From TrEMBL:
Functional note: Catalyzes two reactions in de novo purine nucleotide biosynthesis. Catalyzes the breakdown of 5-aminoimidazole- (N-succinylocarboxamide) ribotide (SAICAR or 2-[5-amino-1-(5-phospho-beta-D-ribosyl)imidazole-4-carboxamido]succinate) to 5-aminoimidazole-4-carboxamide ribotide (AICAR or 5-amino-1-(5-phospho-beta-D-ribosyl)imidazole-4-carboxamide) and fumarate, and of adenylosuccinate (ADS or N(6)-(1,2-dicarboxyethyl)-AMP) to adenosine monophosphate (AMP) and fumarate.
GO biological process: one example: 'de novo' AMP biosynthetic process
InterPro entries registered for this protein in UniProt: Fumarase/histidase_N, Fumarate_lyase_CS, Fumarate_lyase_fam, Fumarate_lyase_N, L-Aspartase-like, Pur_lyase, PurB_bact, PurB_C
Gene: purB
Pfam families tied to this protein: ASL_C (PF08328), Lyase_1 (PF00206)
UniProt-recorded name of the protein: Adenylosuccinate lyase
Reactions mediated catalytically: (2S)-2-[5-amino-1-(5-phospho-beta-D-ribosyl)imidazole-4-carboxamido]succinate = 5-amino-1-(5-phospho-beta-D-ribosyl)imidazole-4-carboxamide + fumarate; N(6)-(1,2-dicarboxyethyl)-AMP = fumarate + AMP
Keyword set, alphabetical order: Lyase, Purine biosynthesis
Species per Swiss-Prot/TrEMBL record: Orlajensenia flava
Pathway: Purine metabolism; AMP biosynthesis via de novo pathway; AMP from IMP: step 2/2; Purine metabolism; IMP biosynthesis via de novo pathway; 5-amino-1-(5-phospho-D-ribosyl)imidazole-4-carboxamide from 5-amino-1-(5-phospho-D-ribosyl)imidazole-4-carboxylate: step 2/2
PANTHER family in the record: ADENYLOSUCCINATE LYASE
Family indicated by similarity: Belongs to the lyase 1 family. Adenylosuccinate lyase subfamily.
Length: 462
């Protein structure tokens, strides 16, 4: 017995509630609504300028046409599907859908200006620019900024909490948990700002980007200026030089930046996962939740693991789109058409990851005792400070020790040195008394440099 029809993608099944907001823009229905918007605005644009003896539409007529966009609903989706079943062409279906509205408004006299001098790609490229911009600006980017704010909050909260650093996975010069989280908040803020200033380009220049059809119908019109005016009226940036398609470079740039943000987030997820593994973060049990089907004690860091997987999937899709979309054979081929239908998939996996990271960061608590214990077990990390102070003392003429680095290397490399042993070693050093007292007062927990203050380099929260 066969199953009833099921969603093939988990984004449309298991995870649909987490990514539903993107469907408003990056779904087939969202794209079609934007196509209707472009067709309607082009028609209004032409009649406003009195092309071919037309008169500007009245406010009520314009509102009636724009209602096709503002009132776009399931009946609109069904009507478009019926048109496409006959036309076998999605943009042609949109044209007929708009013509139906013109007839209902008694505007059959201007019906031939629907889709006037436009190739399907004139409609599509503007529609994708509109929908991607809306999805980024109203859904994805605010969610990213929410995660950044959460990381920054944690950075400020834990700014002064000392932590043993691990370079190459080995004990290293201490830092603070807050400073390490601030690094991620700072990195993500830079990329978020770059994405916020992204350009969304558009073209409206005909079958091969030459305005040939436009000029054949109205040779005296300044079609380049009109194209620019129309595109900017939609909140987009005019691309003056294209083939049949807008070249998609803005998309490649945007998707590369989103993929970059994904990879920073992936780094955050793996680091937090590791801190949990080390016991630095304790996970807060969720009532009723099961960590393992066989080991009752377990609380697994699944939010961060889920985020890793979805960030990898998102970047794979966005990287593929960025690579594919910048190439079109000669003046146009259709590889972009199929590829762009997956834009929502790329953003969907990223949004799902953001949601998991946000939840995961809210389900952990810093165990300061664990951090302190780890620091106290690794006094050898002060070797850097000691050999550096000796170098300064030698340079100042207050010490005759030769090769301070080698001296500390012999003492500490591969060895675990306790506080008492290190104090004994420092006490015997041929250095000035002030420097010696400074080193004797130093502990792994206080050897954090400016880590606390560096958190202030974070940009202020909005």
């Amino acid at each position: 017995m066969s199953l009833p029809a099921q969603p093939l993608s988990p984004l449309d099944g298991r995870y649909q509630p987490a990514v539903a907001a993107l469907g408003e823009f990056l779904s087939e229905a969202g794209l079609n609504r934007a196509r209707v918007q472009v067709e309607v605005e082009w028609l209004i644009f032409l009649t406003d300028r009195g092309f071919f003896g037309t008169s500007a539409l009245g406010a009520e007529q314009q509102a009636g046409l724009r209602a096709l966009v503002t009132d776009f609903d399931q009946s609109s989706i069904d009507a478009l599907a019926a048109h496409e079943a006959r036309t076998r062409h999605d943009v042609k279906a949109v044209e007929y859908f708009v013509r139906d509205r013109l007839s209902a408004l008694g505007l059959d006299s201007i019906a031939e200006l629907t889709h006037f001098a436009a190739t399907s790609e004139d409609i599509n490229n503007l529609s994708y620019a509109i929908t991607v911009r809306q999805a980024v600006e109203t859904v994805w980017l605010p969610t990213l900024r929410g995660v950044i704010d959460r990381i920054a909050d944690l950075a400020r909260e834990h700014r002064g909490v000392p932590m043993l650093a691990r370079t190459h996975g080995q004990p290293a010069t201490p830092t603070t948990m807050g400073k390490e989280l601030a690094v991620f908040a700072f990195r993500l803020s830079r990329v978020a700002d770059q994405i916020a200033h992204s350009e969304y380009l558009g073209k409206f220049s005909g079958a091969t980007g030459t305005y040939a059809a436009h000029l054949s119908a109205a040779p005296d019109a300044d079609w380049r200026a009109l194209s620019r005016e129309f595109i900017t009226s939609l909140g987009l940036t005019w691309n003056p030089l294209t083939t049949q398609i807008e070249s998609h470079d803005w998309q490649a740039e945007l998707y590369a930046r989103v993929s970059h943000a994904n990879r920073i987030l992936h780094n955050l997820a793996t680091d937090v996962w590791t801190y949990i593994s080390l016991g630095y973060f304790r996970q807060i049990p969720v009532a009723g939740a099961t960590g393992s089907s066989t080991m009752p004690h377990k609380i697994n860091p699944i939010r961060f693991e889920n985020a890793e997987a979805n960030l990898e999937l998102s970047s794979a899709m966005l990287d593929s789109l960025a690579a594919t979309l910048v190439t079109s054979r000669l003046q146009r081929d259709l590889t972009d058409s199929s590829a762009q239908r997956n834009i929502g998939v790329g953003f969907g996996h990223s949004l799902l990851a953001l949601e998991n990271i946000q939840r995961g960061l809210g389900e952990i608590l810093l165990d300061t005792d664990a951090l302190a214990t780890d620091l106290d077990a690794n006094w050898e990390v002060l070797a850097e400070a000691i050999q550096t102070v000796i170098r300064a003392e030698v340079a100042a003429g207050r010490s005759s020790i030769s090769d301070p680095y080698a001296k500390l290397k012999d003492l500490t490399r591969g060895n675990r040195i306790g506080g008492a042993e290190l104090a004994e070693f420092v006490s015997a050093l041929d250095i000035g008394d002030e420097a010696k007292q400074r080193l004797l007062a130093l502990t792994p927990a206080t050897y954090i440099g400016l880590a606390d203050e560096l958190v202030d380099e974070l940009p202020p929260l909005d």
